[in-house]
Amino acid sequence: MKNELRIFCPATIANISCGFDVLGVALDSVGDEMVIRKVSKKGIHIIKLEGQDLPMETHKNVAGVAGMAFLGESDYGGGFEIEIYKKIKAGSGIGSSAASSTGAVWGMNQLLGRPFTTLKLVEFAMEGEKLASGVAHADNVAPALFGGFTLVRSYEPLDIIPIHNPKELFATVIHPQIEIKTSDSRKILKTNITLKEGIKQWGNVGGLVAGLFTEDYDLIGRSLVDHIVEPIRSILIPGFNEVKASAIASGALGCGISGSGPSIFAFSKGEDTAEKVAQSMKNVYKKIGIDHDIHISKINVEGIRKIN
Ligand code: ADP
User: Fold this and answer.
1) Which atom of ligand 1 is nearest to the CA of 93?
2) What is the pLDDT of residue 133?
3) Phi first, then psi: what are they for 172, rounded to 5°?
4) Is the CB of 180 under 6 A from ligand 1?
5) Which pLDDT score is estimated for 16?
6) Phi, psi of 139 (to 5 degrees)
7) Domain GHMP kinase N-terminal: where (predicted)?
8) Which of 40, 50, 170, 226 is a Cys-bridge partner for 230, taking CB atoms 3.0 to 4.6 Å apart?
9) Any catalytic annotation for residue 182?
């Protein structure tokens, strides 16, 4: 069996408008790389971290924390070295922390002959998310590990439902270069919602899931609505309303905040439309003078994968 693996760890969009904390999807064109190596020295040792200024101490890095959660339940007596090559900017809202925590546990599991189920790996990776944002949410780590769209049906007990991935669906994600910490953008959320708001929201979650399964692009578009979180969080994102309006005007099915922001995602039917949408989103930030990165991606149905 191999002692070392190089892997691609995808960026992910969590929340997806109406699906706060429960829906997520894995991207294909943007993600980190990691090398995971079996070593005899016990514990998790992060020996290289390039691309971002992040802590390398095991207990301060999500890869280390998730890896230790894995080792805590494994009967393997040795340890692992980890190299992290960050391409996803931390705090961008496309699952930077999730890419590292899932990459660590997925790679370790492969090298040990897959003793744990994917669901169990989600649980380990959630420990990393707890370090990053204070909350052990699964909406980024589940799609990174399962691939495609996933629904966290329940947290207690953890129940993850992989969702069908419509073939022509493309994501456009724009990242304005401002930082919003997940923990800060959680603080501004209200903790109660009205029954009326709840009814609208779960109607849309049901509609979105049905639309994804039946590849009904109009239904997907009608359901990409968030009455609860977006009106509050979007205040932290400069130009959000203009970006959203321009994306829809250019043919996007829907548009919303990616994770806790500041990235904004749009879904389109077909790559050509996703490119037009990207251009229109970029134009808004050019006009108001905000630097940005943009990604156009098909849905990554596989999740984390080995690379040579
Ligand atoms: P994202 O919105 O992209 O998921 P978060 O804001 O949730 O990003 O997580 C980033 C936080 O996690 C930062 O505070 C960062 O210092 C911390 N962190 C620790 N280890 C890592 C890692 N390996 N990759 C990314 N972020 C990490």
Assistant:
1) 2
2) 86
3) -115, 130
4) no
5) 98
6) -75, -15
7) 74-148
8) 226
9) yes
